[in-house]
Amino acid sequence: MNKVDHIIHASGLVKIYKVAELEVVALQGLDLEVARGEFLALVGPSGSGKSTLLSLIGGLDRPSAGQLVVDGLDLTTLTPTGLSAYRRDRVGFIWQQTTRNLLPYLSARENIELLMTFAGRGGRERRAWTDELLEAVGIADKASTPVTQLSGGQQQRVAIACALANRPRILLGDEPTGEVDWETAQRVLALLRDLRTRYGLTIVLVTHDPRVAEQADRVIAIRDGRTSTETRRDNGSTPGSDTAAISGRTARARAAEELVVVDRAGRLQIPGDQRALAGIGRRARVELVDGGVLIRPVEDDRIAIPTEEPSGDHHHYLYEDQGSVDVAAPATPEPLITVAGVTRIFGTGARAVHALRGVDLAVERGAFVALMGPSGSGKTTLLNIIGGLDRPTSGSVIVAGRRVDQMRADELASLRRQIGFVFQSFALLPTASAFENVEMALRLTGQTPRQKWNARVRRVLAAVGLTDWADHRPYELSGGQQQRVALARALVTYPQIILADEPTGDLDSRTGRRVLTMLRTLCDQEGVTLIMATHDPAVTEFATIIYHLRDGLVIGCETRSAATA
Q1: Among candidate residues 485, 476, 474, the one with its CA nearest the CA of residue 507
Q2: Which terminus of the chain, N or C, has less C-beta within 10 A?
Q3: Lowest pLDDT segment from 229-233, 255-259, 539-543
Q4: What is the helix (H) or strand (E) element at residue 355, kind and residue range?
Q5: Dihedral in degrees, nearest 10, Cα atoms 153, 159, 160, 161
Q6: Across the strands, what pairs with 30?
Q7: Is 153:374 a contact under the CB 8 Å cutoff?
Q8: What is the pLDDT of residues 13-56, one digit of tens each?
Q9: What are the φ and ψ backbone dihedral angles of 506, each rounded to 5 degrees?
Q10: Are residues 276 and 305 in contact, defined by beta-carbon separation less than 8 angstroms?
Q11: Contacts of 250 (CB under 8 A, 6+ apart)
């Protein structure tokens, strides 16, 4: 039997983050082996430790305890200079936030070539490899475009090209396809597989998207900082095909059956969602049965088994103490938001980019609007113009009876204070806690009495499932948790208009549905108007209007009744 060549070996890996007297245990004795040339997907709920593990493998952080050997190097003993050389020569990174990969004031080409310059590549080699990468990720025609003028999806494709610039042995991706449409994601994944074969790459991706996980040779589920379950693709099966034979449990079975940890005292650590699904409260009844142990709830301590989604009453309470907001007061029967003939052109001459080409849309009060389309179709640009973050080149934008495109700068600032924004990049203050980041929105708007701040912040953090993380800083949170902080910040001012750019892109499916249910309930019960740019197909179940965009044009519109959406 041939011995497996493991390029990554982790044993008993522990990571504890310490801030003042606060300790956050991100990894709790994790074991993992990855074969050279393998394509591995790491899955698990937000906060399970996936991104922390990726940072340790990439040499961006050191474990608190345990062993971590990557490509023959013991990362726990390397000097800072050695870690720097390891990152430069052996690893490529693709992060959730494209701003961690790109310099915004450089073009796509310049971003890629800059990394090769640091690695000492010659000019001819830099140009040839950059051309190949730009073509491979589908943005050769945007090579000279500043990344600030690219859509979120296009920026992520540049980021992927940058990750491959140093021809790494190991490619680490944290939700690398979370901000691109599935068509683009499939091209990116096909590119990664091709490069793996050609250059002997080992690929480790963190993902919430089961379609992405299906492309991997093996899927490892992480829960509470430990490896939980493993799914391996049988030899000879086609990645992502409907007929691919996958060994192990189905997704539904994995949700109901988990590996749990027995600590040194013999105590079982049962995951919280498993306890909730079983109705187990603070006590449980243990019964010895043939071949194992049966754990049941105690009748007088049984908790109600939750439904998949939170109740509407909970979300109605969220806006219970709202004050009057200008944009909420219906003055006319016209749509709350009207966009007519809007164009947006970035640059001039041969370098001009036509992001929008005469867009028309009308949004009624209380609508849940989804803007859908491939990367670069103009979704984010349209959101920015509606929200007063950008001005159209031509056309008109009317919000609550006022011409946004004709507003002065101070009027635009006032409008923005009445809108809740959720961006692709979370835009959180890194030194502030989750509570303080959310509270900051109340400080800036000045619309809520100070004595109500504490209760309101805690109410919205509870609504997005972050009660226990209120005092944690962004770097102590997973990408999904950071996204929920950003959502809470948008909701805390009780806005009557919410503009969201991929708010579920970095969330697992269960958390994503919870967020979508909450937003839909706000639309139905509070009259909130929501416009969301998204690639998430689950959004179609919640939206009342879906606008389809392509190449800066609205190419279709679906209207759904509130009862059927």
Answers
A1: 485
A2: N
A3: 255-259
A4: strand 353-363
A5: 120
A6: 13
A7: yes
A8: 999 876 555 677 889 899 999 999 999 999 988 778 888 899 89
A9: -115, 20
A10: yes
A11: none
How far is residue 338 from each of residues 343, 365, 389, 401, 410, measured CA to CA in Å? 14, 11, 16, 9, 21
Structure tokens at 444: 């800036």
Torsion of CA 383, 389, 392, 396, to 10 degrees: 70
Q: Name the percent of the chain lying above pLDDT 90.
A: 29
For the entire predicted model, the pTM comes to: 0.55
- Look-up of token digits 């142990």: 293
Q: Which residue has the higher pLDDT, 234 or 160?
A: 160
What residues contact residue 7 under an 8 Å CB cut-off, 6+ apart? 34, 35, 36, 37, 38, 70, 71, 169, 170, 202
Give CA 440 to chain center in angstroms.
22
pLDDT tens digit string along 263-311?
A: 555 666 665 555 655 667 667 888 877 677 788 777 665 544 433 333 3
Report the CATH architecture of 312-327+364-388+409-559.
3-Layer(aba) Sandwich (3.40)
Rounded distance between C-alpha atoms, residue 126 and residue 134, angstroms: 12
- Residue reference for tokens 């004050």: 323
Phi/psi of residue 346, each to 5°? -100, 130
Alpha carbon of 88 to those of 36, 74, 97, 535: distances in Å?
19, 16, 20, 33
Rounded Cα distance, 389 and 323, in Å: 25
Dist. CA 194–CA 478, nearest whole Å: 30
Would you call 23 helix, strand, or coil by DSSP? strand
- Token reading at 228: 């939980």
8 A C-beta contact, residue 36 and residue 7: yes
Q: Which fold has domain 6-100+167-255?
A: Rossmann fold (3.40.50)
* Cβ pair 479, 447 in contact under 8 A: no
Q: Are strands 170-174 and 202-206 parallel, antiparallel or unpaired?
A: parallel
DSSP string spanning 385-397? Answer: HHTTSS--SEEEE
Give, for 358, the enclosing helix (H) or strand (E). strand 353-363
Q: Are the CB atoms for 542 and 519 separated by under 8 Å?
A: yes
| Phi, psi of 20, deg, nearest 5 | 55, -120
